[in-house]
Design goal:
Number of helices: 0
Order of helices and strands: EEEEEEEEEEE
Helix content: under 10%
Distance between the termini: 40 Å
Number of strands: 11
Strand content: over 45%
Shape: globular
Length: 119
């Protein structure tokens, strides 16, 4: 099993920045790339960004690509999400996710960290 724990969420005003962090433990050899998702009340989790191991290739959702940046250490045992110019519509629970090398799906999620942006 892979365990994920997020941190760095909080309450900020519009236009401010936050940096989320995710620490990975457990069977880290069974994970592939890592990602951030977010969830608004009453909806499913939505993809935000992902980063690949080795070359560190990244992909960001269109809505956030000019404001958010995903990064991580070499082994992707720590990943980050730098969020700049936050907007009230960015308020959500943010989850760190790991893709399983066995299933190819993002099977592992952390408990999430709340981000609230006031106007």
């Amino acid at each position: 099993q892979v365990q994920l724990v997020e941190s760095g969420g909080g309450l900020v005003q519009a236009g401010e920045s936050l940096r989320l962090a995710c620490v990975v433990s457990g069977r880290t050899d069974t994970k592939d790339d890592m990602a951030w998702y977010r969830q608004f009340p009453g909806t499913d989790r939505i993809f935000v960004a992902r980063i690949k191991p080795n070359n560190g290739g990244t992909l960001h959702a269109e809505l956030v690509k000019d404001r958010f940046t995903i990064s991580g250490d070499n082994g992707l045992n720590r990943i980050y999400l730098q969020m700049n110019n936050l907007k009230p519509e960015d308020s959500a629970i943010y989850y760190c996710a790991a893709r399983s090398r066995v299933t190819g799906a993002y099977d592992f999620f952390g408990p999430g960290t709340q981000v609230t942006v006031s106007s």
